[in-house]
Amino acid sequence: MYSRILVPIDDSPTARCGLDEAAALARELGSTLHLLNVVDARLLVGEVSAYMPPDQLLNDWRAAGERLVAQAVATARSKGITVDGVVRCDPGWRVCDMILEEAKSWRAELIVMGTHGRRGFKRVAVGSDAELVLRESPVPVLLVRQPAQ
């Protein structure tokens, strides 16, 4: 059914919920997971780049993404799941566009990602990559919320 599942991840609890759901699906369906961490270089505009050179900040973010992906890949493999992972960074692209491009180039059949479920002003101010992926995706998208505490 879904043999190729793309899972965008960051270091948030909602992303971990999305990854857990994707791993459960992969175990059940015998699917391959492709984990993606996107370094949002556009944040350099609003970040404290005055305190650190932008290149150094990007390198640090990439390194953190590589560690995150490596950990998630190792965890999924320890559960018997076929998985790989990548980190992408392109200053001219929005996170949602990079997710969609990865889905297309990797030929994903499903995208599973966590969502914060923001509403109102917070959603407008922060934006929603999950919502934009959902609207533009050529393949089904499963959005996973973190359970209420």
What's the structural blueprint in terms of helices and strands?
Blueprint: E1 4-8, H1 13-29, E2 32-39, H2 54-78, E3 82-89, H3 95-106, E4 110-115, H4 120-126, H5 129-136, E5 141-145
Parallel strand pairs: 1-2, 1-4, 2-3, 4-5
Helix pairs in contact: 3-5
Description of the molecule:
- This protein is an alpha/beta fold.
- The protein has one domain (4-145): 3-Layer(aba) Sandwich (Rossmann fold), CATH 3.40.50.620.
- The chain has five helices and five strands.
- The protein has helices at 13-29, 54-78, 95-106, 120-126, 129-136, and strands at residues 4-8, 32-39, 82-89, 110-115, 141-145.
- Strands 3-2-1-4-5 form a five-stranded parallel beta sheet, with helices on both faces.
Count of individual helical segments: 5
Strand content: 15-25%
Order of helices and strands: EHEHEHEHHE
Spatial separation of the terminal alpha carbons: 33 Å
Strand neighbour order, sheet with most strands: 3-2-1-4-5
| Strand count | 5
Give a short account of the largest sheet.
5 strands, parallel
Query: What's the average pLDDT?
Result: 87
* Low-pLDDT segments: 120-126
Relative helix content: 40-55%
